[in-house]
Amino acid sequence: MKRILLAASLLAASLSWASAQDYFEADRARWMDIALSSAPALHETIVRPVSVVKAVEDPSAFQGWRYESVGAPDFQDKSFGQIREITLDFGKHLTGYFSFHTKTLNRCQDAPVRFKFMFGELPAEMNTPLDPWKGGLGRAWMQDETVTLCELDEWVTIPRRIAFRYLRIELLGDSSGFDFALDDLYFKAVSSAGENTAVLEEGCPQAVRDIARVSEETLRECMQTVFEDGPKRDHRLWAGDLYLQSLANRYSFRNFELVRHCLYLFAAFAGDNGVLWSNIFDFPKPHPQYGSYLLNYCLLWNSTLLEYLKDTGDYDTARDLWKVAKRQIEDGLSYMKPDNIFDINARPVWIFFDWRAGLDVNAMMQGAMIFALQQTYELATMLGCQDEVKEYPALIKAMTKAGRKAYYDKEKGVVLSGADRQLSALSQAWMVKSGVLTQKEGQKAIRTALANPGTVMPGTPYGTHYLVDAMMICGMHDEAREYLVDYWGGMVRKGADTFWEAYDPNDDMLSPYNFFPVNSACHAWSCTPTYFIGRYPEVFQK
Fold first, then answer.
1. Distances in Å between the alpha carbon of 208 and those of 211, 215, 492?
2. What per-residue string of b and e applies to 344-373 under the rule 16 or more CB within 10 Å gives b?
3. Confidence (pLDDT) at 388
4. Roughly how many angstroms between the first and final C-alpha of the chain, as a whole number?
5. Closest to 292 (Cα-Cα) out of 278, 281, 273
6. pLDDT for 77
7. For 321-343, what is the mean pLDDT?
8. Per-residue pLDDT for 2 more than 70?
9. What is the torsional sign of CA 517, 520, 522, 526?
């Protein structure tokens, strides 16, 4: 068996990064044509503010701040020179473009007028000083804009796309020689989502209804010209996020043409070696983030293609892209050692399962590779191509046996990963998802890990999705429902109208970027409760 896997690994390695010519040269232009022809239309909705609010510092509120209403937004005919500052609540998270109109009230404009517009998703983001900047990502991701008007009495649209709920307008400069009003403003919200088809059972608990609603709003906001990961920050399509979005889309908007569009974009922009880049930008024209290779995200692209085929029966697309899926497995196998263990040190590679410092990914990657083989073999079987990958079942069996030997501590009943034998919730989850652990073993492993205060827990809804998924796979239905309601419901109880990029119930200030205001408060990988609620109504809607 070792000889079988070693031969496969050496073949994959020879193909992986040393291709002298473009691996998919004959297909690229056609794939790009298909991607562009399936680009979605954006639906537009005009939204105006629902109230004027004031900030209240509150230690009991999420991140220490909340807003309370102080009246209706009836400032339109009043002197803004006297108002000078106002904060507006638009009532829900929105993504799109902001426009405003000014009107001279008396005399004539004799100097420029300067405004500062601060858009934010959360109250604390709006009320935390941004400078001096200490975030780990660029300062320009924050949505504060300065606008200077040399002429009034006209419409102005801020060109930058905004994702927000709250807007603070400050008057930075004016003249005593005249007066003016902000007599109208509105927001043009955009999304390609379309109609939400999700219908919950009559007896579904209100807490679950609230979670489903927020999940679907999260996905709606992230459905733009591609499945974006965050409309406030990042503005791009990630292969791993796409997989989770496709699952949630099945049980909500069912916009499968958008999934197809994204699958083809990834294929058209694959590296010359045939391996996918981790993410794609759609503006000013579609292009990948060259050099950004994220191995386990490439493998999840295969799962997205499989789910797309199951959802649509579109065998033409699946057959057309089959060679791309097969190529990702070839690349993944090039990291395998002769003992059938995935070697994350085989060459420099980025592997991501969660934003949690110190997380050891060795056991997770063993599970992820096995899962990718399983999913790709299922895809091949549906397409009648299983003879092309007839070695996969033997590889799965060998890697499963090796994974148990390397990482499963039978005496303790848990998976331990890496040289330090780290206990993490996600190591248990991926060994369950890949079938390395039996259902009974998985139950014990997850329960033992969750009961241990030293266990490394996920810091994001992305990682938490796979933990809940593993609970469902190994029959822990009651615990899965309780965990979902507690975790995502915790965000709802703290005021979320879309689900956040990073969330730890015990640390409101958690940020992968060293500064919580730069976190995304509407993030695609957080939308999957609607998948669980829709797929397992007998568990989550009772």
1. 5, 10, 10
2. beeeeeebbbbbbeebbbbbbbbbbbbbbb
3. 97
4. 47
5. 278
6. 87
7. 97
8. no
9. negative
Angle between helices 315-333 and 256-268 (to 10 degrees): 50
pLDDT above 70 for 39: yes
Cβ atoms of 291 and 348 within 8 Å: the answer is no
> For residue 517, is the peptide bond before it cis, meaning its omega torsion is within 30 degrees of 0?
no
What DSSP line would sit under 196-247, residue for residue?
------TT--HHHHHHHHHHHHHHHHHBSSSB-S-TTTT-EEEHHHHHHHHH
Residue 20: predicted pLDDT: 58
What's the whole-number average pLDDT of the chain?
Answer: 95
Q: Taking 60 as the threshold, does the pLDDT of residue 9 lie above it?
A: no
Q: Which candidate, 191, 261, 223, 225, places its Cα nearest to that of 37?
A: 261
Helix (DSSP H) and strand (DSSP E) numbers for the chain = 17, 14
b/e sequence 154-189, b meaning 16+ C-beta within 10 Å:
eebeeeebbbbbbbbbebeebeeebbbbbbebbbbb
DSSP state of 160: S
Count of beta carbons in the 10 Å neighbourhood of residue 114: 14
Question: Do 317 and 308 meet the contact criterion of CB atoms below 8 Å apart?
Answer: yes
Residue 384: both structure tokens together = 């009648």
Backbone angles phi, psi at 337, to 5 degrees: -90, 165
Task: Give the integer Cα–Cα distance in Å for 393 and 387.
Answer: 11
With left for phi above 0 and alpha for psi between -120 and 50, is residue 235 left, alpha or beta?
Answer: left
Dist CA 296 CA 352 (whole Å) = 7
Rounded distance between C-alpha atoms, residue 338 and residue 6, angstroms = 5
Distance CA 465, CA 13 (A): 32
Q: What is d(CA 333, CA 473) in angstroms, rounded to the nearest whole number?
A: 26
518 confidence band (pLDDT: 50, 70, 90): very high
What pTM does this model have? 0.94
Distances (CA, A) of 300 to 65, 107, 419: 38, 63, 26
Q: Which amino acid is present at 64?
A: G
| H or E stretch covering 106 | strand 85-106
pLDDT in tens, 231-245: 999 999 999 999 999
How many CA atoms lie within 13 Å of 454's alpha carbon, on the beta-carbon side? 4
E strand segments, 366-511? 408-409, 414-415
